[in-house]
Write a structure and sequence with these properties.
single chain, 513 residues, alpha/beta, Rossmann fold, GMP Synthetase, Chain A, domain 3, 3 domains, nine-stranded mixed β-sheet, 16 helices, 18 strands, globular, binds xanthosine-5'-monophosphate
Length: 513
């Protein structure tokens, strides 16, 4: 059991950020539902507990409350925002509904410099608030240690029990020195060392995989994306030739994608790679189909069919490995106003059917995306794969409006290759969320030499985003746009016009479909 901090999630949109911040201190942390029984928490032997914020008020009838036995675990507890109300609720304080929500920046004055939470910090700090209710009477054994203009109890402490409450959010970037507050909690108060890093993770994970799998064989669907690639490299390190990766070419891949997967995994890592070229099957089934939802359904269904047939070819296999990440497995708290609950349902498509008779191996399921990238680098994967932009499962089909044909795929692939090349050579590729070409099957008139042309249009889409849920279009420099436009028009036969998509999400989406 790694040394760890357990976070109980009361539905704050920032819960995952707290876990991230703790891991940045090289301490493992995991998020559990707010009502996880204290005995279960105790079995993890946490060095400390954090009670997250949340949209509720302890006075609501359906307020999420923890198992009260957590206050008998004898470990330090940090309550953030709603977490402070929980101290009041269970340990005898008082909370009142704030007349107005305190939202945004404020200045925190530290009143008791001996409080370990604020060690090494200046007397005044900028902090970020987002709360409606307010503590008006301290719970038993607590004293105030810091105040804001609005609250005398912005930070409170029970020295004897090592309990701390913060009315503000130390985890968000708008509390610039919040990382130090969290570091003080985990290192000084909970006495955690710095044991969580990707090198130690590899050793643990390799051992776990070997124990789980024994001498059985494992298959993995390799998409060329970051998660499945890192999972493949990790599994290969653990079980070598017991791993077979299946790579399906659906005919909707980017330029050189299939070739690069074969080079990296087949030639370099010498992973057993089963390459399934099903491009004709996919394109055949997409013939004449223009409705975006139908296209997606056909691609999803065909993928499952091809993958299932491929697993049969692979022979006797007991395990199926998947590159599931931590944010996919955190159970979101079913509280109205919890945005995490909404985010989960989005695009969770393209999965394999439940009736496939494999046991699952999910070696990345406790990692965040950037930890997976670090792990990939540690395992020797090239930067091209580790920092690859997200690419949708249905591939180029969501970037060709109307019917998907071989010819249109070839045109888009050629244009997209130019976009990727130019974005990479200027390093913009690595600075933003996504950049790609879209084929608009609208023809317009142009001239080339002495001839009139009547050809398609390419739209360039470049967006910045944190998670794909919202996005802003990127103001790429004019000289880069000029290069993209002239290269695409000169080099890609069938295109005579290039446009730039300057819409944000919402109301537009990232992909055009
Ligand atoms: P939209 O177009 O909804 O896309 O703004 C948001 C993010 O999701 C990606 N995307 C997908 N990813 N399978 C995936 O794995 C899909 O079917 C899919 N559709 C969209 C998109 O590229 C963007 O990053």
């Amino acid at each position: 059991m790694p040394e760890q901090i357990v976070i109980l999630d009361f539905g704050s949109q920032y819960t995952q950020v707290i876990a991230r911040r703790i891991r940045e201190c090289n301490v493992y942390s995991q998020i559990l539902r707010y009502d996880t029984p204290a005995a279960e928490i105790a079995s993890l032997k946490p060095s400390g507990l954090i009670l997250s914020g949340g949209p509720s008020s302890v006075y609501n009838e359906d307020a999420p409350l923890p198992d009260k036995e957590i206050f008998k675990l004898g470990v330090p507890i940090l309550g953030v925002c709603y977490g402070v109300q929980l101290f009041a609720h269970f340990l005898g304080g008082k909370v009142e509904r704030g007349l107005k929500r305190e939202y945004g920046k404020s200045a925190l004055s530290i009143k008791d410099a001996s409080c370990a939470l604020f060690a090494g910090l200046p007397e005044t700090l900028q902090v970020w608030n987002s709360h409606g209710d307010k503590l008006t009477k301290l719970p038993k054994g607590f004293k105030p240690v810091a105040a804001t203009e609005n609250s005398d109890f912005a930070a409170i402490e029970n020295k004897e029990r090592n309990y701390f409450g913060l009315q503000f959010h130390p985890e968000v970037v708008h509390t610039p020195r919040g990382r130090e507050i969290i570091a003080n909690f985990v290192h000084t108060i909970c006495k955690c060392g710095k044991n969580w890093n990707m090198r130690s993770f590899i050793d643990q994970a390799v051992e776990q995989i070997q124990t789980q799998v024994g001498s059985e064989r494992v298959i993995l669907g390799l998409s060329g994306g970051v998660d499945s690639s890192v999972a493949a490299a990790l599994l290969h390190k653990a079980i070598g030739a017991q791993l077979t990766c299946i790579f399906v070419n659906n005919g909707l891949l980017r330029g050189r994608e299939a070739a690069s997967v074969r080079e990296v995994f087949g030639k370099h890592f010498k992973i057993k790679l089963q390459y399934e070229d099903a491009s004709k099957l996919f394109l055949g089934r997409l013939k004449g189909v223009t409705d975006p939802e139908r296209k997606r359904k056909i691609i999803g269904k065909t993928f499952i069919e091809v993958f299932q047939a491929a697993t049969k070819k692979a022979g006797a296999v007991k395990f199926l490995a998947q590159g599931t990440l931590y944010p996919d497995v955190i159970e979101s708290v079913p509280i109205a106003g919890n945005p995490a609950a909404m985010i989960k349902s989005h695009h969770n498509v393209g999965g394999l059917p439940k009736n496939m008779k494999f046991k699952l191996v999910e070696p990345l399921k406790c990692l965040f995306k950037d930890e997976v990238r670090q792990l990939g680098l540690e395992l020797g994967l090239p930067k091209e794969i580790v920092y690859r932009q997200p690419f949708p499962g249905p591939g180029l089909a969501v970037r060709i409006l109307g019917e998907v044909t071989q010819k249109r795929c070839d045109i888009l692939r050629a244009a997209d290759t130019i976009v990727v090349e130019e974005m990479k050579s200027t390093d913009w590729y690595y600075k933003i969320w996504q950049s790609f070409a879209v084929l608009l099957p609208v023809r317009s008139v142009g001239v080339m030499g002495d001839e009139r042309t009547y050809e398609y249009t390419i739209a360039i889409r470049a967006v910045e985003s944190q998670d794909g849920m919202t996005a802003d279009w990127v103001k790429l420099p004019y000289d880069l746009l000029e290069k993209l436009s002239s290269r695409i028009i000169n080099e890609v036969k069938g295109v005579n016009r290039v446009c730039l998509d300057i819409s944000s999400k919402p109301p537009a989406t990232i992909e055009w479909e």
